[in-house]
Protein: Lyase
Amino acid sequence: MRLEKDSLGELEVPDEAYYGVQTVRCSGNYKIGNHTYNEFPEVIRAMAEIKKACAITNSEIGALNHVKAEAICKAADELIAGKFAGHFPVNVWRSQGTGVNMNVNEVIANRANEILTGKRAYDQVHPNTHVNMCQSSNDVFPTAEAIVLYRLIDPLVASAKEIEKTLEVKARDFKSVVRLGRTGLQDALPMTWGQVFAGWLRSVQRAREQLESLKEVFSYGVLGGTAVGTGMGVMPGYPERIFENLSKVLGFTMKQKVYADEVIPNSGIFDGMRNTDHHSVLMEVVKELVASVTRIANDLLLYASGPRSGINEVKLPMSAEGTQGYEHENTAYLCEMMTDVLGEMVIAEDMTFYSANEGQLDHGSINSGGFITLVKAIKLASHALSLFNNECLKGVEVNEELLRSYAEKSTSLSTMVGSLFGYPTGVKIAKQAIAEDLSCKEVAIKEHVLPEDVCEEIFDVLALTDRNKTIELFKKYRNIRKVD
Structure:
């Protein structure tokens, strides 16, 4: 162990640690669980990228010695590459990033000193004076949050697009496979499985497009605001250069939000340091995306029920090993998994909303909990959608013969008779079909309601799934229609 000192006194720090006394003190103050920033390398990466951009900027404006800036950049690059995994023991339930900001500052400072002198210390590069120059945790952490969320949107969008691709393939494959539609779980009119998959496709697509539209919201940072947004402590030239340098480090454009109708200069910074309602909006859209996929999963679970005593219209792919130890079992459990994941999204939405609305005065002081919850939710959603798609959805097949028999025997086909001869006649056909266990077509032929060749046309279940074809049928047989 080594002794390190800060304004509050001395504390022991593990010899192997690159963090320092502030990290040890912060870790000790928040022992309420084992969740630390070691679990969230994407946050550490974003903060290290900010530190690198700040060092470059401070060197360019003459506020930071070039040699020290270069050492800070080298140390930050190592953090970005994940070299110091395990050196971030600060608990995630710690304010708006104050603890993790100092944790990152100390690791970079110790490593920068090691690069310059061969030993860990703060004599050449200090965590506050040099690494945190022109910064505050209050502008660093919200900017890091934006970077992390900006990046996390892409994998979730990719997972959604893969599901859309699968649904499109299935819609084309099953475009001529007739099934019996159901409303309120009761027999309805014929439709095709292609139509079902196409409808599912659009629901996922709509949610995914909403998610993509939010990405720009997270391309704005608040660096230069320092503690309360006023920028006190920022050196001349820093605000003009910081976002250009940060964008180069990140590989995408990050900027300060500027309004054309500014009443007070830099109002976007004052907003960004206090408010995280955009986190709530993002979480809501993530939940809706998961809900759209869960709806598909729930429907598939019901369609695949059986095989001998259920609906049995759908065949789910087999899993490698059954959950009960059976050698062959389908992947219904992945449909159930999506329901569990949606439950997690609902809980995460509540936490994110609560955090966004519980900050006090000039600082979103409890948002780290909401942010971490949001990060975990997005990562979970990305993995769940990918797993469900690859292991279940792609392998879905349908029982075509059974589906057609259900559609052809449906009493809902009496609607065609009712449209030609009035509602009472249609009801009569339906009741007789049920009583005699016949199809509506068979009853219509038996009772000489229509000629057999006409019945073959108007009871063609595939044709009845196409609105244009049914309209053409009514045009063709308008002369036999008897509705006043």
Notes: The longest helix spans residues 137-173. The beta strands are 2-6, 9-13, 178-183, 186-192, 220-221, 255-256, 314-315, 318-319, 329-330, 397-398.
